[in-house]
Prior knowledge:
Layout: E1 7-15, E2 30-39, E3 44-45, E4 49-52, H1 62-68, H2 72-76, H3 81-99, E5 105-108, H4 112-124, E6 135-138, H5 139-146, H6 158-164, H7 176-190, E7 202-203, E8 213-214, E9 224-228, H8 236-242, E10 248-257, E11 263-271, H9 274-281, E12 286-288, E13 291-297, H10 300-307, E14 308-309, H11 312-318, E15 324-329, H12 337-344, E16 357-361, E17 367-375, H13 378-385, E18 390-392, E19 395-401, H14 404-415, E20 444-448, H15 456-463, E21 470-479, E22 485-493, H16 496-506, E23 509-511, E24 514-521, H17 523-530, E25 534-536, E26 539-541, H18 574-577, H19 632-642, E27 655-657, H20 666-672, E28 686-689, H21 692-697, E29 702-705
Parallel strand pairs: 1-5, 5-6, 8-14
Antiparallel strand pairs: 1-2, 2-3, 2-4, 6-7, 9-11, 9-13, 10-11, 12-13, 15-17, 15-19, 16-17, 18-19, 20-22, 20-24, 21-22, 23-24, 25-26, 27-29, 28-29
Helix pairs in contact: 6-7
Keywords: mRNA processing, mRNA splicing, Repeat, RNA-binding
Organism: Polypterus senegalus
Family: Belongs to the ESRP family.
Amino acid sequence: MASHSDTLVVFFGATAGANGAKLGSDERELILLVWQIVDLQNNKFGETHRCLVKPDNLELSEQCKEDTGLSVEELSRAEPLDRVLQQFQQSISSELKSLGRNSYVLCTDGPQLVRQVIHPEASKKNLVLADCFYSFFDLRKEFHKCCPDAGSARDQTLSSMAEFLTLSAEEAEKGICEVKTMVAIIVQLLSEPWNHKFANFETVKCKFETGACSKSEVVDSETVIRARGLPWQSSDQDIARFFKGLNIAKGGVALCLNAQGRRNGEALVRFVDQEHRDLALERHKHHMGSRYIEVYKATGDEFLKIVGGTSNEVVQFLSKENQVIIRMRGLPFTATADDVLGFLGTDCPVTDGKEGLLFVKYPDGRPTGDAFVLFACEEYAQNAIKKHKEILGKRYIELFRSTAAEVQQVLNRYLSTPLISTLPPPVLPIITQPFITTGNTRDCVRLRGLPYTASIEDILEFMGEFTVDIKPHGVHMVLNQQGRPSGDAFIQMKSAERAFLVAQKCHKKMMRDRYVEVFQCSGEEMSFVLMGGTLNRSGLSPPPCKLPCLSPPGYAAFQAAPTVIPADAALYQPQAILASPRTPQPTTATLPQTVAYYPAQAHAQLYMNYTTYYPSPPVSPTTVSYFAAAPGSVAAAVAAQASQSQMLPQPGALVRMQGLPYNTGVKEILNFFQGYQFAPDEYNSLIPVSDQARSLLQPPKEWLCL
């Protein structure tokens, strides 16, 4: 924003922690404000004002005590921040009247005071800042414009600038000395030979702007960060509030989703330039509520992968600016736009009616049960969220706040879904001994909230004295579909009594910097969750597509090179994980070569860690019918192994189909059975039933499907 100002308010502050270049990096509160008015046109100066600010936490760092010379007793008698800001406003207004001025711009020594201290602290304390705090001059940059030979603006300090201009420092209290030095530098820059004019002040965005992003757009990697550890219910506005004071690019917040389409606690944020990105990195481990947020560098390609879109329908949907986006999940497949509008009602009108609805569909046009809705204001969106889990047809509907980036992610995910679904290769090979029981005896415990870096050794240390009561191969780490820890684990104990004692004594015990919840459960409940079901306060939900007539799919475990197997390595058989209701048929097939699935470490052999796909909360019913196709290298490895070894034998289901159209092909039959589990090599197990002459003349009318 370009502007010219004739009146400056030289502004200086200090916090209870780090100061100088690290001001605001430790989240400590403001304890000192000093200011003075400078009339640039008439070369007049106002009085120097020094105000102490009482923080909520009166603890001072040693550096603060040394730099400011302040004590806890002095600060305890000071006014809180909101009253000090009122005094600041009143003092400036009265002095401006005496000078015949009515506007001014702040001038600070660097951006940290305004961007990293004033705005974040005011946001946390729900204070409304005056307009003057949304624009300021950075004296270092103004100095660099006049004296580029002195070095970069980031490396400048008050003492280095004063030394370059041959100014002598004055002895005074902390804050007053800095303000007087800043005023002397300003006066020097206004004089010959520079005759500097203070123009083009910096601004602080007061509101985050939503918008769409194209895959063809160029995103500078020096402007993107990754925030990790976000609450799952946080929105783009919450993230923008966390980075309050820094300018985020339009549509620059992208909440990341996991493979189940749910938020995974991470977000990519794009800032307007590198300076703001660097200031954002200084907020590493700052708090959002009670959670600390990790902030790391990211790349422009990562950002475009999340938010970039090419669909004209999505671009048109997101072209309406300043709209609140709500995501609806669980819609009946037959739901129409009129049904959705009727469900929302008149108290939350949708922007532009049917044009404000975007239904998510598969590439073949089938509905997914998801939709996005636009609302003109926050009030309408809140009214819509009140309908969370209300019934439409025979299904309850979930409603969540959403973002433009989430719209792109969901559409990209479903539009890239293959028409013929394939299950991904297992993360771990299948094992041969039934260590997972399915009884109702509550001799197991569930650990929830584990650190993502927790290992089996950490769990054993966490269990303490109860480690001796764990069954052999009884520690089961649960990973999500990306193969990363989900924060959950199941442990099989030797008896229900020992499981009860573990749940009583270890519940909410600390592991590193997190407390872990411990619940007693049964082997059946554990088996259900390990197979993809859910276990929560609402009860037990079975795994998706767990049908009585289907057995677990068998997979051929493959390795690029021969693997050394530990002597007591635990390996599973598919029947041990989900028991089939039918009696397995005897077979003489040769078993494939076994594969070790964890490192051959002495202390890791005692307890196996079975891995499965398990969604992190919040969870809703999902299907396993649509997974991304396996990479070409994986498919090639499976094919290579299939030519050398047989799969594990398991019961199959034989289905005969009659009355098929004569032009029916394999693809149509697979689509007919969409939603049922097939082993990867069963897609070609379609046997035509017909006489030889008819098979030569026309397609068969009957097929046998294995």
